[in-house]
Amino acid sequence: MFRSSNNDDFSGSSDLNEEDMIKDPQPDASTSGNLRKSVSQSTSSLTSNGSVESISATRFSHGSRRKSKRWRGWCQRRGIAGLALLVLVFFISNSWMLYRIRDPGRAAGIKVKYLKMNSSTVSIKEELVKLGKGKKPQKTIYARLLAKASHALAEGQNKPEPKDLWVDHDNASSWKPCADQRDWEPSEGNNGYIMVTANGGINQQRVAICNAVAVARLLNATLVLPGLMYSSVWRDASHFGNIYQEDHFINYLRPDVRIVKELPKQLKSLDLDAIGSVVSDADIVKEAKPGFYKKYILPILHLNRVVHFVGFGNRLASDPIPFKVQRLRCRCNFHALRFVPKIQETGALLIQRMRQNMSRLGPLDKHLLGPLAEPKKKGQRSHSTKASRYLALHLRFEIDMVAHSLCEFGGGKEEQKELEAYREKHFPALIELKKTQKLPSMAALREEGLCPLMPEETVLMLAALGFNRKTRIYLAGAHIYGGKSRLTALTTLFPNLVTKENLLSSAEIEPFANFSSQLAALDFITCTAADNFAMTDSGSQFSSLVSGYRIYYGGGEMPTIRPNKRRLADIFVKNNTIEWSVFEKRVRKAVRQTKRVFSRPTGRSVYRYPRCLECMCSDQP
Questions:
Q1: 53 DSSP 8-state letter
Q2: Residue 436: alpha-carbon gap to chain centroid
Q3: pTM of the model
């Protein structure tokens, strides 16, 4: 049974079937017979050439013949013993390798220690931690498939990966970023001031900030530097200037929108709530169109000279939006929001260490890191791309996601009880909905692809796609529901999996402690710069922003894995009968169908789908 995040018992690979282990080659009877014959012939030849031939047969005594027979027998016995010793050594070494791959008590945690920060190579030490000692191993419904995955990874450890694994087949050479191009006059912002307090985590706040910029332009208003709402969930007291460069944001958008750092003194003393200038999320329909703001918000600006959007989130429609305003949203997201140097410096360290301190630059480095993207030593040669590439994985399996999904994840009654208690505290509306309406069953939810991918399903997907066991994987995300025990399958089958907490020393990560948004910014940089990026939930705001950034600046060279959970669910349901070769083919086909990037569909976010004429330019009609 899977435990809560406070339980570190192992799960998954502890139940791997022994019948799926790799068979060690054993010498057959014909091999041993041939070897004995060869040894016999070799020893016999000692008496049939050289100086031995010159000795007359008459000089051999009976004692000499007995010695010769004893010598041949000793050689034969020694040859057989040598063969047996060789087979024994091979068997022991092969069994030890399999034990390392499949033992659930090993490879559960990887702590990367850097003894020399400026060394040209990265020393990685795997601390093999035994968790759940003395406790009954947890079970998993995927034990059979995990055993087959372990077998496949062991066999393919020195084989080349599929050719298309690290390549984006999307032909995007004709699309270029051009949201920085302007062809309008600056806004004077003389209709009043717009204040915004963005809610949610850093990803929701990023969307809210750029939407606020667009609203300010629509209403010809002055935007006060956005504030970030403190949330009991995220518990991050960061301000805008703790995450993004304020002066760059203001100056870059000056030709578009007038932005100030604070309200004028004459407006600071106003009781905005009392005069009706406070507008909450509840007052604005979701995906509100420009006409809504002109009809209901502009009159407030004219009357009170200020409006405060509290909890402003996804409150501006994707369509219909004027072409130039839509381009402004892209300009804000991809050009104006630049992380502060503290975050850029630490992000650069993470990228450098994931690339094993190699100096090559990725296509997105300069856009994410600014001047820090340049190599410290001029003229330093770039190393092999293959040797330093890495996969970034966003595993969306936090307790809020798990609880809200209403799915089950193999933990039985104890798990359901824990998740229900979480819903009662954090999602009371969902509890009421369960009481008043008949909701789909857990099996139906999973069949429709509405359940988060479990870590066990994720590792099976990666193994089926053909990633080598030695692949360097950067794991992004918050605390995984189930704790370390839930990651056992991942860390066992892919031991080179690390997080920012592993890569950074305690002194390097300490400035970001208790600031979840700043930690998420580090994940954003490292995932966006990765040679390949895999998401487990395409609806995640983080994954959407990362994939959008990779599309905008990647030039079709930054592959992203976007699994279709509904298609995968149809494959996983056959886990007790499907053969590994069939599983591989079906998973690869399902993922390949979602790898291609299309132009932005109407009504979809430009932050996720920037391939549109508002954000990017194409030289093809």
A1: G
A2: 38
A3: 0.77
